[in-house]
Amino acid sequence: MITTSVCIIGAGPGGATAALQLDRLGISCVVVDKAVFPRDKVCGDGLSGKVLSWLEKVDKGIAQRLQQLVEKENSWGVKFVSPSRQSMDVPYKPNYNKAAESPIGFVCKRIHFDNFMVDELKRSPNVQLFEGTAVDKYTLEEDGYLISDASGQFQVKAKLLIIANGAHSSFTREVAQIKMEPKYYAAGIRAYYKGVKGMHEDSFIELHFLKNLLPGYLWIFPLPNGEANVGMDMLSDAVRDRKVNLKTLLTDTLKQDPIFAERFRDAEMTSSLDGYGLPLGSKKRVISGNRYMLVGDAAFIIDPFTGEGIGNAICTGVMAAQQAAACLEADNYTAETMAAYDERVYRVLWPELSLSYKLQRLVKYPRLFNWVFKMGVKNKQLRDVISSMFYEVDLRKKLTRPSFYFKLLLNR
Ligand SMILES: Cc1cc2nc3c(=O)[nH]c(=O)nc-3n(C[C@H](O)[C@H](O)[C@H](O)COP(=O)(O)OP(=O)(O)OC[C@H]3O[C@@H](n4cnc5c(N)ncnc54)[C@H](O)[C@@H]3O)c2cc1C
Q1: What's the CA-to-centroid distance between 276 and ligand 1, angstroms?
Q2: Ligand 1 atom at minimum distance from 187 CA
Q3: Which atom from ligand 1 is nearest to the alpha carbon of 298?
Q4: What is the pLDDT of residues 307-335, one digit of tens each?
Q5: Is the shortest distance between the CB of 279 and ligand 1 below 6 Å?
Q6: How far apart are CA 229 and CA 245, in angstroms?
Q7: Which long-range contacts (CB under 8 A, 24 or more apart) does 200-203 make?
């Protein structure tokens, strides 16, 4: 049996970041993942500025090495397409200068990004990584958690667990008692394509809010070598109530919609079309307890509007590791002490999660969405604010203040 202070279940972006942060704090930990890396993960592969900024907090060197990763496509903004087919280009930064600045957004296949993170783990002296080992049993004992694989041959005893094993975590369901609720959960699918026409020259990612897909959207994210990640997601209650088959809906849309039919005429699908769940942070949950904290998808923390979960997995990974350090220092792992983690996570993330939840509901009303969109296309101030929101998260707060809309209407 291995004994350790902290055991992390899952080496995706959330678990890997928690381990890297612990390592940089001089705390040793064990990380267990059922997969052997490099491994794939169904995702849109979009990495926002939040990924870099939180990795920089852990170690500037990691962020610099990520900037140099050759397998990623630098992206300079987002193209939004409204239900009435109006499009609005919003750069991540107003008046960006490609020659003089580093990009703040990327698209990188998860097989490469997650492997980059695991390579960082392998170089970290305080991290012991076990791949190809699925954790199956969790037993709370007086002095810690005993975890093991199904055979019971692999066992780790830890004072504290960081649960980062993704959207289908049995620990989240059974121990933390967080249930999947279809109105706060989405289903997503994606495939890789080669040869899609009409991509943005500065590799803007594209979000298409087509009328027949609402409350979901279709995305096209540019990748290196002329590839693209193409996918769609939709709230699970809508999928269930309307009996939608997402795979058929996506492939039919690409074939039958005149604009996509032209753009995909010579394109070739280079992978299978696969799906996975998105546990959305549309409401607050209790994400820690006696001797454990949940991180990333296991904590149901994906942005309900954009579907972005990697940045939030990384951010919660950092916070969980810092909370673990405080608990080890005080030798105190009670649920009451752990609650400081929930408090910090929601203090930092709830303003944007709750705003995104409001925007997600707005998408259900195409006419209202079209109206707001039309205003954005005409109004430079609104476009600049949306643009600034990508690199200055605090500016998003402006969007929650009625006075902001009032001023916009006056300036129309
Ligand atoms: C279709 C789709 C599109 C998306 N697009 C985007 C996007 O463009 N940008 C974005 O930011 N987010 C996107 N997301 C969300 C993003 O994929 C997740 O939020 C992110 O992967 C969460 O990271 P994580 O570390 O919490 O979990 P994961 O990445 O799921 O990692 C969990 C790890 O735990 C391991 N594991 C699981 N069970 C066990 C076990 N029993 N024992 C040991 N190990 C285990 C797994 O092998 C895995 O390595 C998308 C999601 C979907 C489904």
Answers
A1: 9
A2: 53
A3: 26
A4: 999 999 999 999 999 999 999 999 999 99
A5: no
A6: 19
A7: 200/77, 200/79, 200/89, 202/75, 202/76, 202/77, 202/91, 202/98, 203/73, 203/74, 203/75, 203/76, 203/107
Cβ density class 254-274: b for 16+ within 10 Å, e for less: beebeebeebbeebeeeeebe
- 285 residue type, one letter: R
Is the bond preceding residue 38 a cis peptide, omega within 30 degrees? yes
- For residue 196, is it within any domain? no
- Domain residues for the domain of 37 are 2-73+103-181+280-359
* CATH number (domain holding residue 69): 3.50.50.60
Distance (Å, whole) CA 151 – CA 1? 13
**280: helix, coil or strand?**
strand
Whether 311 lines ligand 1, by a CB cut-off of 6 Å, is: yes
Q: For residue 269, how far is its CA from the centre of ligand 1 (angstroms)?
A: 23
Nearest CA to 7 out of 118, 196, 158, 144 is that of 158
What gap in Å lies between CA 232 and CA 247, rounded to an integer?
Answer: 9
Q: What is the pLDDT of residues 219-231, one digit of tens each?
A: 999 999 999 999 9
pLDDT in tens, 242-298: 999 999 999 999 999 999 999 999 999 999 999 999 999 999 999 999 999 999 999
Distance CA 13, CA 118 (A): 9
Ligand 1 and 294: CB distance under 6 A: no
Distance CA 320, CA 31 (A): 14
- Ligand 1 nearest-atom number relative to CA 170: 41
What is the total count of domains within the chain? 1
Mutate to test the pocket of ligand 1, among 110, 165, 390 (most ligand atoms within 8 A of CB): 165
Q: What is the dihedral of CA 400, 402, 404, 408, to 10 degrees?
A: 130
What separation in Å is there between the alpha carbon of 96 and the centre of ligand 1?
31
Distance 307 CA to ligand 1 centre (A): 12
Would 268 be classed as within a structural domain?
A: no
State the pLDDT at residue 412. Answer: 43
**Alpha carbon of 131 to ligand 1 centroid (Å):** 16
For residue 58, is it within any domain? yes
The residue whose CA is least distant from atom 52 of ligand 1 is 43
